[in-house]
## 1
Amino acid sequence: MSYASLKGFRDILPEESARWREMERKIHDLMRRYGYGEVRLPMLEATELFARGVGEGTDVVGKEMYSFLDKSDPPESITLRPELTASAVRAYVQHSIAQQSAFTAWYYLGPAFRYEQPQAGRYRQFHTFGIELIGSEHPEADAEVVAAGVDLLAVLGITNFRLRLNSLGMPDERVGYRAALLDYLRGRASELSEESVRRMEGNPLRVLDSKKEQDVRATADAPRLTEFLGAESLEHFERTRALLDAMGIDYVVDPRLVRGLDYYTRTAFEFQGLDLGAQDALGGGGRYDKLIEEVGGKPAPAVGFGFGLERLLLASEAAGASSTAAPEIDAYLIALDDEARRWAVKTTHTLRGAGLRVECDLLRRSMKAQMRDANRKGARFAVIVGSNELAARAAQVKNLGDGSQRDLPFDALVETLCEATPHLPTPDQTSP
Ligand code: HAM
C-alpha cells in the first residue's frame, strides 16, 4: 500500500524549500523596513467568521471552503482558513488592539486552503504573504499598501507585471450600480457564457471579472461603477492615484476589476504577473472599511493585500532571479575505522556547536566513498582520521579547493577551521 499527497497539496522538498526560505527572508527584511509587526494566526477558525466576513455569495465561501464539524457536543462547524484577512481582523478585535493604538500595521505568512480545481499556479493548499493596515481611512494608507506590493516585487526581481486599480465604492453606492448592471446583464443574457448567466443574479459584479471572450464582448458597454460613486469615494480614488503618481508607481485603472471577496470598499487592486499562465494574479487587495464591524468590532477603516507565494516563486524564476546554489559545507569528517567514527561523531557535534557547517559519514562507507560524498557536497575541507591520527592526536586536513594537505593537532581543529571559514553563519542568516 502506498500513499500520495492529496490532490492540490504539494510537498516542498529541500532544494525547493531553500528558495522558499530565501524569499521569506526577503519578505521579513522588507517588513522590517516598513515597521510592520508579524502576526501568526491559527489555521482553523469558526466557519461563521468567513461566512460573514468574506461573504456567503462568494465562490470562496460558497464552494471552496474546507469546513467540517468538530468533536464538541453539540458539534461546531470549523473551517481551514481560505484567506487570512478575516482571521487577522478577528484577532485585532479579540485582543482589543484598537484600545492600544489608533493605527496598527500587521503582516503574516502562512498557508490557506481552497477547494479549487488544481492547475498550474493553483493549489488547494497555497501560501500567502499579506499585510493589513487598520485604523486609517485616508488614501495615504491605500498608497502605502500598494507601494509595499511594488517593493515586494522589486526585492524578488519580478519586473514583468501590471498593476490594475479600481474603486468599488461603498456598499450603498454599489446597490444602485448592482441594480443597473443586473438590468443590463439580463438584457444580454443570451450573449453571456453559461457560467456568467448562473452568476449574474447572485453576484452580477463578478460577471465583469470573467475572462471569457463572449463575456468581455457582451459587457463592453455595461454601466460603469464610477458613474455611481459619490463625491467622497471619487475624491478618495483621485487622491490615492495622485499619491501613486507622486511615487512614480505605474498602474492602469481597470473598471472591470472587482475582486472575488465581498468585503472590499473603495480601493481595489491586483498585481498581474505577465509571465504566468491563466492563474496570473500574483497578489491583490484593497480597502475594507466595513469588515471589522461585520465581525463584531468597533467600526475601523482598513486596507491590505495578499500575495500567493507559489506564484511569486514562479514569477521570480521566470524573471531569472538567482536561485540559491546547493548548500555547501565547511568540513566533512572522514573516519577510517570504528574508533575514528566515534571521534568523528563527537567532533562533528563540537564543530557544529562552534557554528561551522559540518558533516560526517553515517553509512560507514569506505574512505573513497566518503571522499566522493565530501566533494559532491562542496565541502571546503576534508578532515581525515584513522588509528594513526588518533594515536598522534592530529588529523589530516585536506583543502578540497586547492588540494593542499597538512596535519592539524586535534586541539587546534576548532580554532583553525573557524578562522578558515570566511562567513560563519550569523543568527540573522540562519533564522528568517
Ligand atoms: P485573494 O486575491 O483571494 O485575496 O488571494 C490573494 C492571492 O493568493 C492571489 O492573488 C493569489 O496569488 C493567491 N491565491 C489565491 N488562491 C490561490 C490558489 N488556489 N492557489 C495558489 N495561489 C492562490 C485574499 O486572500 C485577500 N485576503 C487579500 C487581502 C488582504 N485583501 C485585503 N487584505
## 2
Amino acid sequence: MTAPDTPSDTTNSASSASTYAARAKLNLGLAVLGKRDDGFHDIDSLMVRLNLADTLTLTPTDAGIQLTVHGDTAAGVPSDASNLAHKAAQLYLDAADVAAGVAIDIHKKIPVAAGLGGGSADAAAVLHGLAELYPTGLDLFPLAMQLGSDVGFFVLDVPAARARGRGEMLERVYLPNLHFVLVNPGVAVSAKEAYKAVEAYSDELDVRGITAGLTSGQVPDFPNDLEPGIVRTYPQIAEVLAALADTDLQGVRMTGSGSTCFGIADDAAHAQKIVDALVEAYADWWVQAARSE
Ligand code: ATP
C-alpha cells in the first residue's frame, strides 16, 4: 500500500521525479448543520479514503509551475492556474519562499465534480510532494484549508476521519475495511450548487452509532443532507440510487455533493459481482468497485 505522501521508489530517480497517489474519498453520511456568517456551512461528516486514486508526478524545475493533465477522467479539468493542484503549488512555493519551481503531471482516474474530492486530493498530494521536494517545516494544514474544505482531510492523511466545522475540525475514526460499489451517471455537480439546494438542516451525525454498526457488520442508515435537493435537480442521480437500492448492497447513498452514489458490499467478490451486473445493464454509467484504504 502506497501512502499518498510516500514517493514511489520506482522509475523516476534519473529525472528526480517523485510519484504520489492522490486518493479519493467518500462521505459515509454528511449532515449540514446550518449556514455560517462567513458563507460556509457547518457540517458533520464521516470521510473515508478510497483506493481509487489520481497519480501525480512532481519534477523539480528552476522556476515556475508547469502542469499537464491527462487520463480517463481528464475531460474538462483545467490545466492552467485555476487547477487546484496548480493553486496548491503556488501557495506552497510562496509561503515557503522557494525560488525554484515544479512540473506537475496529473493522471486523472477519479471522476470530476463527482463528490469524490478529486481536485482536493490532487491539491493535498502537491502540498505533501513539495514539502518533500523543498522541505521547510511549514505547517501544511492552514495552506490546505485555504485551498478548500476537503483538502484538510487529505493532508491529514488517515484512512477515515470525522470532519466538523467547515471541515477543519478533524478527528481520526477507526473503521473496518469496507468494500464499495461506486456509480456515476456522468453528470457534474458543483459543491456550491449542492449546498444551495439543501432543503433542511439536521443535527450532528451519530458517528458512534455508525462506526459501531459498521464494526459489527450491520450497516446503519446515514443521512446525506445534500442528497434530496440534488436528486430533485438531477433525475439521473435518482436513477442511480434506485438501481443501487435494487441490489443487495447496503447503505446506499450519494457521496458529498454528488453525482457519485455508492453502496456497501460484503466483500470484494460481492462488489465485483454487482459491478459486472450494473455495467451490463447501464453501459453509459461509470461503475467501479473500490475499498477503503
Ligand atoms: P468535492 O467533493 O471536494 O466538492 P468534487 O469531487 O465534487 O469535489 P472535483 O473533482 O474536485 O469535485 O472538481 C470540482 C471542480 O474543480 C471541477 O469543475 C474541475 O474542473 C475543477 N478542478 C480544478 N482542479 C482540479 C483537479 N486537479 N482535478 C479535478 N477537478 C479540478
